Amino acid sequence: MRILLAVAALVSVVALWARQEARLKGAVFGRGPAQEAQVRELTESGELTAPSPVKVLTRDDSDWRKALKPDRYHVLREAGTERPFSGELLVEKRDGWFVCHACRLPLFKSDSKFDSHCGWPSFSEPSAFENIRTRRDLSGGMVRTEILCARCGSHLGHVFDDGPTATGLRYCVNSLSLDFNAGLAKMPPKTDTAIFAAGCFWGVEKLFYETPGVLSTTVGYTGGHTEHPSYKQVCGGNTGHAEAVEVVFDPARVTYTKLVELFFEAHDPTTLNAQGPDYGTQYRSGVFYRDQQQRKQAVEIRDKLVAKKMWSDSVVTEITPASTFWKAEDYHQKWFLTHPVTCHRPTGK
Ligand SMILES: [Zn+2]
Q: How far, in Å, is the centroid of ligand 1 from the Cα of 102?
């Protein structure tokens, strides 16, 4: 009896050791099934959570067969490849998330999708590196890197280092491995555009660029009569254009009215065709409205500031409909980032 007990104990110790070995090998070499993965999930507002541990999803093969349609099963569970140019998501261009068809883990975001002409949906990077597992794939006489869902281990496709994108990578994914979810996409803000002229555009751009709620700024020429004007032509004073700044902003964060106030407060609207040391019609003060609502608001703010006796002289600011905005030469864009900008910016008071 004692011998039997000793043998049983030895067997269980050996079994325990074997299990531990297998687990270690799995962890270190990626051969055995991992028990846990660190992944990032999607919140209801379409953002990724911090990485957190989840149990790896394991199912019996028969359950996978029941859960997946045969073509999906072949790709996801047998590392199959769908026919090139056959996938529904190849042409999907909407904003949204591409999630694992088998377990819904977010894998790729629409902004990393690009047209690789290879016949399968292609991405420059995963939305979260935690959510993708890689494995060397020597099948088909090739050496490739297979990509798998980190939570359910389903086959997605391969990653290649021939991407034309900034990452240099091309995640080539079977459409059948993915589902597209437009609903969870975090939508870009609704934007509006304002155009102002207030003298030398270098300083005016800086003012708006640094204003919270402004999404982008561009310097250029507008309000004149020549097409594709150059800086030299505009400075010559014969094009009729004013140096201006086009301001794209998020109306939920900064209103048009607020931008108009800023515009009036940051320059002297009482000096005709001049601003600080600069003279000429290209340095005139102007609001170029894009709709009647903008016109109304610009007039209201001007009148309000005049009523408050903000300036002792009359305001000469033009409030005119916007016409073509001609983008200035590249070297003028964001000039203030590389040069000290000292042109004008008087208080106007
Ligand atoms: Zn999955």
A: 5
